[in-house]
Amino acid sequence: MTTTTRPTSWDVARRAGVSRSTVSQILNGNDDRFPQETRDRVTTAASELSYRPSRAGRSLVSGVSDLIVVVVPNVTFGRHLQDAVDSIASKSAARGMSVVVRYAGNDPVATLTTVLDLRPAAVIDLGVFDAAERTQIERAGIVTIPEQQMVGQMIENPNHHIGRLQVRHLLEVPGRRLVSALLVDERLDTFGPDRQQGVTDEALTLGAEPPIRMRVPLRIEGVVAALSAVVAESSGAPLGICCYNDDVAIALIAAARELGLSVPGDIAVVGVDNTEIGQLISPRLTTIAVDLLGTLETFLNDVGLLQESGTPDRSVSDILADPASFVRLLPGASS
Questions:
Q1: 158-294+322-330 has which fold?
Q2: What number is the average pLDDT over the span 192-221?
Q3: Shortest CA distance to 299 belongs to which of 316, 283, 285, 311?
Q4: What architecture (CATH level 2) is domain 9-53?
Q5: Domain 62-151 shares a fold with domain 158-294+322-330
Q6: Is residue 111 over pLDDT 90?
Q7: What is the pLDDT of residue 312?
Q8: From CA 218, how far away is CA 159, in angstroms rounded?
Q9: CA gap 21, 13 in Å, rounded
Q10: Residues 280-283: contacts with CB within 8 Å, 24+ apart?
């Protein structure tokens, strides 16, 4: 059996007739002080040997890698997360950086340790770390997106705002009994409780009863049973259901059909995520659109990690001051 040995920087140095330090500096972009002929010899030798510098080695020398780590809570996301990561990865590549997604489990300490070990240039935290953990990351010289001080300046939690927005829309029709519908999911839910609290707070602000709370499984027999129980509890009043996401809203529409209920007459639903399938079903979903990509790009550009041309539509201060700058209601036919 033939064993292939991976080429090293020593191999490149021998072939190019230079020192290993020269190879390291040229291939890592610190080549200004070297003649063009030396640079060409090193890059040609590296190409002939199929040698690529080690990112881990660079991070050990510089104290920071060329990675952006997106830390995602282990909850249900629509495809907009993937679209946002793909777009950021493409734009980051133009600056010689790579994007890694880390899904956090129920052990935040393990996730924190992994992030610190990677020594990334930046961490995009989508709701995993608490204030103390974010501070620890920043003290390690790693940029957090949004930065810890920015989180403290945010006028309202975006998920709380989503719940409030759903209530305001649903109560435009008098007489509806509010319901807050979260997804049945054994994983840690970092978004649902804040959305549910927003629903409760806005209901009380508008003089409505606190919402009925329900959990929705994505199986027809389970969602039919859950909706039947809520219909009975509401004594036949029309329901205005604030859904955790579009999947929950679609499941409730399917259950309403099974039970012979009209949408939006007997039950009105508002989803979250603005998914493609939600805009294809009948009735077309009313949903909350969250501009995740635009928001992340604004933060990354603010700390100099993306090269954006032109004047941005909004600034970091706009986002901190008003969740409505990136969260909006898209009226459909389901409410």
A1: Rossmann fold (3.40.50)
A2: 94
A3: 316
A4: Orthogonal Bundle (1.10)
A5: yes
A6: no
A7: 56
A8: 22
A9: 9
A10: 281/250, 281/253, 282/333, 283/253, 283/332, 283/333, 283/334
Characterise 264 by phi-psi region: left (phi > 0), alpha (psi -120 to 50), beta (else): alpha
Contact, 244 vs 234, CB < 8 A? no
Cα–Cα distance between 231 and 187 in angstroms, integer?
27
Closest CA to 214 of 195, 227, 202, 232: 227
**pLDDT exceeds 80 at position 141:** yes
Identity at 258, one-letter amino acid code: E
CATH architecture of 62-151: 3-Layer(aba) Sandwich (3.40)
Q: How many residues does the chain have?
A: 335
Sign of the CA dihedral 54, 57, 58, 64? positive
Could you tell me which residues come within 8 angstroms of residue 329 by beta carbon, excluding any fewer than 6 positions away?
A: 165, 166, 169, 270, 286, 287, 288, 289
**Overall pTM > 0.85:** no
